[in-house]
C-alpha cells in the first residue's frame, strides 16, 4: 500500500519541512530581538568602558547653600559629597544616645572605612549604634569589611532567606534607602551612598534635618530594623513624632506593596502651575508618570528634566534616551549633565514644593525597592533647589527637538531595541 506524504512531512527520505505556525513566528521574533539586544548591549558596554578609561573628572560647579528654617526644623541641602560626609561624620562624633545608619551601598574604601571607624569609636563610648546595608548592593564588598565590632548592631538586608521566597514577586526588592539619624534629632536623607567615588566625583543631592522631623527618619529606620532584624535585638527606643504639614516622609514598602513616592510625584506634577525642575539619575518613567509630565507641559508649565549624559549604567542611559523624542514633542525641556555622573533624585515645583530622596524614576524604585523621600513645602527651600538646578543646567547641553530627531540611525535603532528592557530596570 502506498502511503501519501502528510502535510509538512515531505517525501520519505527528504528532510521534514518546518511547519509554519504563529508560535514559531513569535518565538523567532523574540529570539531575533534577544540576539539584537545582546549585541547592542555588548557594543554599548564596550564603548562605555573605553570612555570611562579616557575620562577625567575635573570638578563641577555647585552653589553654597545656607541652612534654611522650615517650621521648627533647620534644613541644609548638600550638593557635594565632601561637605556632606564631613557633616555626617561631625554629627556621628556628637552623638550621645543613638546612631542609625542605613546605606544601599557602603564601599570598602577610605570613606567607607572612615565611617566605620567613627561608628566604632562611638559604640565604644556607649552610644547605641545600629547599621543596615543591602546585601545585593554590597555583593562585591569583601566580607571582612562587612564584619563589625560586636558592640555595633548590624543588619545585612536580604530579601530572600527562605527557599519559597523566590516565588514571591514582592521579594525581588532591595533596601535602596540612604539614611543617617543621630539621637532622633539630626537626620540625613538623599541620594548619596557611602564611598570615596561619591565624595568628590559624583554630583548628588542630600538633605540634613535638624529638629523634630528627624524623629520620623529615626522611626522609619527603627520600623525597618524591627521588621527585618533579629527579634532578640529589637530597638525599643522611641522618639516623639508629630504631624508637620511642611515636612512629610514618604517610604516605599515592597512587602506591603505600598509605593507612595510614585504617587507623590504624580500628585505634585498634576498640581503644578508654573515650573517643574526634575533631576534624576535614571529617568525611565512609567506611562502614568510620563503622561503627567506631558500634560503639565501641555497646560503651559515649564517642565525641565536633567539627567546624566553618561551615567555609570550605559544601558539605563540608552533606555532613558528612548523617552526624549516624545518628551521634546510634548514641550518638555531635556538637559544632559556632562560634568560627571549626576546621581541626584530631586524635584522642585512652582517654587513651593520640593522632594529629595533615594527613589530613581524607574520601575525598580517606583514599584520595587524600599525607598525613602522627603517632601517639603517651603518657598525658601524651593528657592535653593531652583538655584541648584539652574547651576546644574547652566552650561550643560539642552536637547533641541530637531537636532535630536537628526541623531544617527544606529542611535535610534539602539533605543528601539532596548525599549523592552524598560520594565526590568
Ligand atoms: O542605586 P543608586 O541610585 O543608589 O545608584 C547606585 C549606583 O548606580 C551604583 O552603581
UniProtKB/TrEMBL annotation:
Residues 171-198, 338-365 form the PLD phosphodiesterase domain. The keyword Cell cycle does not apply. Keywords: Membrane, Transmembrane, Transmembrane helix. One of its GO terms (biological process) is cardiolipin biosynthetic process. The keyword Membrane applies. The chain crosses the membrane at residues 20-47. One of its GO terms (molecular function) is phosphatidyltransferase activity. It comes from Ktedonosporobacter rubrisoli. This is Phosphatidylserine/phosphatidylglycerophosphate/ cardiolipin synthase family protein. InterPro entries: PLD-like_dom, PLipase_D/transphosphatidylase. It comes from the Bacteria.
